[in-house]
Write a structure and sequence with these properties.
The protein is α+β, with helices and mostly antiparallel strands. 24% of the residues lie in helices and 39% in strands. The strands form two sheets. The protein has a five-stranded mixed β-barrel with strand order 5-6-7-9-8. A three-stranded antiparallel beta sheet has the order 2-3-4, with no helix packed on it. The two termini are 12 Å apart.
Length: 135
């Protein structure tokens, strides 16, 4: 039963991650659109944390690490309603700079600053997702 559950969850194309886990993510060599974490393939990442603006650069800090956003005019518009210090949920793709440093290309931003238990629930959600996949 556990293997069937892993197959079903693994087929979902969005995975929840802590930033500290991204060093294990790789681009699948058979497709530029598929990412792999261990034996799980997916297309998008879901992360939550605090937005940090430094000049023209945008970062997300989830308490386990910091990742820079790849920004375009369209993606900058997604951040217009989320000021520096906002707690947000981000969904998007991932690319790697030379040297393997990950960057996120954001497709969706939701400001969760008004949710009182957002951070605690996020940690539990990610741990539950990975417990289901790997234990």
């Amino acid at each position: 039963k556990k293997e069937k559950q892993r197959q079903m969850i693994g087929s979902i194309c969005i995975r929840k991650f802590f930033i500290s886990m991204l060093h294990e993510v790789r681009i699948d060599p058979s497709s530029h659109y598929v990412l792999k974490y261990r034996d799980i393939s997916f297309q998008r990442i879901w992360m939550q944390g605090v937005l940090i603006y430094e000049g023209d650069d945008i970062y997300l800090d989830d308490g386990t690490g910091i990742i820079q956003m790849s920004t375009s005019k369209r993606s900058r518009e997604l951040f217009d309603k989320s000021p520096h210090g906002s707690y947000v949920m981000l969904i998007g793709g991932m690319s790697f700079e030379e040297g393997g440093k990950p960057r996120m290309s954001v497709l969706k931003v939701a400001d969760l600053s008004s949710e009182p238990n957002r951070e605690t629930l996020w940690y539990l959600e990610v741990m539950d997702a990975f417990h289901t996949l790997y234990v």
